[in-house]
Amino acid sequence: MLKFNPAFDTLYEALLARDPSYDGRFFVGVSSTGIFCRLTCPARKPKRENCTFYETVAQCFDAGFRPCKRCKPTTPEASADPAVKPLVEALEKRPAYRWGEPDLIELGFDPSTVRRAFKRHFGMTFLEMARQRRLQEGFSTLAGGGKVIEAQITAGFGSPSAFREAFAKILGQAPGAFSKDALLAADWVSSPLGPLVAVADKSQLHLLEFLDRKALPAEFRKLQSYAKGQIGFGRTAVTDQIQEELNRFFEGHSGVFETRLALHGSAFTRDVWRELLKIPAGETRSYSELASAIGRPDAVRAVARANGANQLALVVPCHRVLGSDGSLTGYGGGLWRKQRLIELEQSYRQSPGA
C-alpha cells in the first residue's frame, strides 16, 4: 500500500475539482450507479455519501463496481484520448518530418485541442514532441559515427546553425564540441514517458535524464568537467543494458534495475541517493522519513535538495518521494511523469520480483 492515504474529505474535494494530481492514483466507486471513475471524470459529481475511494482498479472490481464509459479508468489516460494515440503513431512513422499545424488540420484535428491534450498528458505540445523526436534522429546519427551535417539532415533541420542551437539547448553544447576519443559515451534511450539521454562508460551509468529536463544542460556540464571533456557519442554495453531494463520496467515485468551506477555528488547527496535505491517499486516515502533513514532527521530541506539533484532518473527513484500529506511534490521530469510512474508501480506493490 502507499504509505500516505489522503483523508476522505481531501479526495472528495479533489473529485469535485477534477484535480489531476490524484488521477491514476485514486479512483471513486459510486454506490448509486455501481460504476467507478477517475477523479477527473467529466460526469456530474456524486453525493459524498455515495462515494468510496480506492487506490487501484483491482480494488474497484473486487468491490463490485464496473468501469465508467466516459473517463475509461481501466485505460491509460493518454491512450484514451482520441487526439493522442493516432498522432503519436503518426509521429513514429515519420520521426524526421517537420510537423506543423496544417498537417494536424489535414489529419482532421483541431490544433488548439491537440495542443491542450498533449500539454495535459505529456507536459509538452505535439509540435514540441515532434521537434524533440527529430533531434533524437540526429542524435542517433551522431552516436552511430555520422557527421554533424548528416545528423542535421536526418533531423530535418534546414540550416546547420538551427541544428546546433537546438542541440545546444538540450545538452548545453553544440555537437561539434563532443570528443572523438571519449571516456564516456552519450546516446538516447526510449521510454513511454519520453526519450532520455544516457551517458555511460564500459562499466557504469553516469547520467540518465529526460531530454526535456531543464537541469540537463547544467548536469551535462558537470559531467563534462568530471570527465575532463571526454564525452562523445555512442553506446556501450551499459547503455544497452539500461534500455533493456527500462523496457522490462515499463512493460510491467520487473521493478528492479541492476545496471551499475556512478554516483556523482557530495557524501551527503550520495547517502540520500543510496537510501532512495532502497525504496521498492510500489512504495513511497516522505522527505522527513528519508532524512530519518540516513540519520539526519533535522536535514529535511537538504534531503529534498539532494533528491532534486538526482541525475539518474527512474533508476535512482526520486519519484517515490511524496509530501508529508501524500501529495505530489516537485519532480524535475515533470509532475505528470511522477504521477504516471506512481500509477505504473502500483502493479509492483505485491510482486515478489519487484
Describe this structure in words.
The chain is an alpha/beta fold and 354 residues long. Helix content is 41%, strand content 11%. Among the domains are: 8-74, DNA Methylphosphotriester Repair Domain, CATH 3.40.10; 76-172, Homeodomain-like (Arc Repressor Mutant, subunit A, Orthogonal Bundle), CATH 1.10.10; 267-348, Arc Repressor Mutant, subunit A, CATH 1.10.10.10. It has 15 helices and ten strands. The strands form three sheets. It has a four-stranded mixed beta sheet with strand order 3-1-2-4. The chain has a four-stranded mixed beta sheet with strand order 7-6-5-8, sandwiched between helices. A hairpin with a 4-residue loop joins strand 1 and strand 2. Helix 9 packs across helix 10 and helix 13 packs across helix 14 (300-308). The model has no long low-confidence stretch (mean pLDDT 84).
Features:
single chain, 354 residues, DNA Methylphosphotriester Repair Domain, Arc Repressor Mutant, subunit A, 11% strand, globular
Q: What is the CATH architecture assignment of the domain at 76-172?
A: Orthogonal Bundle
Biggest β-sheet: strands ordered side by side in the sheet: 3-1-2-4
Class computed from helices, strands and strand pairing: alpha/beta
CATH domain class name of the domain at 76-172: Mainly Alpha
Query: Helical percent range?
Result: 40-55%
CATH topology of the domain at 76-172: Arc Repressor Mutant, subunit A
**Total number of helical segments?**
15
